[in-house]
Design goal:
About 25% of the residues lie in helices and about 20% in strands. The protein is built from nine helices and 13 strands. Helix 2 packs antiparallel against helix 3. The structure holds protoporphyrin IX containing FE.
Length: about 375
């Protein structure tokens, strides 16, 4: 369930009232979103719940992923101390209050859509007392023929995925969380990207990647989402497993293609993300349809190969960010699922063998994390594992 409280464009309380007046006097209007439509920006998310926020909560504009290595002395008990400290930080940061001992308390602010997602890498399950707790199906992604992996954005014992409306809020949170981890864990890599989950009319919309494609349309919903996403495995019940792939995209080559070549490589149009077999963005693809004796959605089209019907029903929940650090441009691809071995890996293998997109994409970083369930008041993250 998406757990948000609405703050509106200018924050909460008296400021919000003044802000609305100002917006009205400037002739600005913000379409009223229905209560059922989750809005990506201007939110204050609850840090509590059965699931961690930052998975199915809408993707706000800015995101940073930070991976850490555990320091040599960090054992199970020490990891528990770090998780307690981070959990306290996360409650205050997401609620927009300064953390204890904060040197920059004036930067704390509600209504910036802050979430801080915590993940545990494979190294955590090598610690004494935790080997038997390794969740079923949690493993590194085996090498793929199109990979061009480097260590720069691969691996990690711990992950923080900070999401917010802006990079100033993220930088403030990251500084606090990195500082508080210092006795137990050191920075391994950090990568940041952006996403635009809002259309030109101010309404929630599926965002676009840097190929210009609408990306995220066919993510599972409802009961199918619950089934694909949430683990029911022992201590991880209510949690999930995350694959992060930093996928470089060859934009000059992509830009040299004609629009039809770009569209058939996916099987959807660029304007609306609609299947090439017709309908709107959310219409079902017709994988049998032909024109002039040819399949309309070719056999190597990405959306065909990744479709659950071609993968024995396997699916996953994707949440990605676009990155552009001038030397490299692409997608920080995130896929959440209950079981990496059963869901992500077989789909990735099929794509590695046949996907038309392989001509213009290559994974340059890869990492996997167990995402513990959410916490409730008085609890800390990963408590069911560490207590
Ligand atoms: C840079 C790399 C990638 C790009 C540009 C890309 C782009 C897209 C686009 C445009 C769609 C169609 C719209 C949608 O449903 O979201 C799509 C669908 C999908 N992609 Fe990717 N993708 C990439 C990598 C991957 C990877 C690595 C995987 C998993 C191994 C994956 C899995 C999927 C799945 C499961 C779907 C939904 C298929 C369906 O149910 O119709 N994608 N992708």
């Amino acid at each position: 369930m998406v757990d948000v409280s609405r703050r509106g464009l200018f924050g909460a309380g008296a400021g919000a009232v003044a802000g609305v007046g100002l917006a009205a006097s400037m002739g600005l209007s913000r379409p009223a979103a229905s209560a059922a439509t989750p809005v990506a920006s201007g939110q204050t998310h609850s840090p509590y719940g059965d699931h961690q926020p930052g998975i199915i909560t809408p993707t706000p504009a800015a995101g940073q992923l930070i991976a850490f290595d555990l320091l040599p002395g960090t054992d199970r008990a020490a990891l528990g101390r770090l998780m307690r400290v981070w959990s306290t930080d996360i409650v205050t940061l997401t609620e927009g209050r300064p953390a204890a001992g904060d040197t920059l308390p004036d930067m704390a602010q509600p209504g910036v859509s802050m979430t801080v997602l915590v993940g545990l890498g494979p190294g955590v399950f090598e610690l004494d007392g935790l080997q038997a707790k390794l969740p079923a199906g949690f493993q590194e992604i085996p090498p793929m023929q199109h990979d061009r992996l480097t260590d720069d954005y691969s691996g990690g014992d711990l992950l923080l995925w900070i999401s917010a409306d802006d990079f100033t809020s993220i930088a403030y949170a990251a500084r606090r969380l990195i500082h508080d981890a210092e006795p137990w864990a050191a920075l391994r890599w950090a990568q940041q990207g952006s996403w635009r989950g809002i259309g030109g009319d101010g309404e929630p919309a599926t965002g676009r990647n840097l190929f210009g494609q609408i990306d995220g349309t066919a993510n599972p919903k409802g009961a199918e989402l619950d089934e694909a996403l949430w683990s029911t495995d022992d201590w991880l019940a209510g949690g999930t497993q995350l694959v992060i792939r930093r996928i470089e995209m060859d934009l000059p080559e992509w830009d040299s293609l004609i629009r039809h070549q770009q569209e058939v490589s996916i099987g959807r149009d660029l304007a609306h993300g609609a299947p090439l077999t017709g309908g709107d963005e959310h219409a079902e693809m017709d994988l049998e349809a032909t024109a002039d004796g040819e399949l309309v959605i070719p056999l190597d089209a990405h959306a065909r190969l990744a479709h659950p019907s071609q993968n024995r029903g396997r699916t996953m929940f994707r949440r990605s960010l676009n990155y552009d650090d001038t030397t490299s441009v692409g997608l920080i691809f995130g896929a959440f699922q209950a079981n990496i071995a059963k869901q992500f890996i077989p789909v990735q293998r099929a794509l590695d063998d046949f996907d038309a997109l392989n001509e213009w994409t290559a994974a340059v970083g890869s990492a996997v994390f167990v995402i513990p369930p959410g916490m409730h008041e008085g609890e800390y993250l990963a408590q069911p594992l560490l207590d």
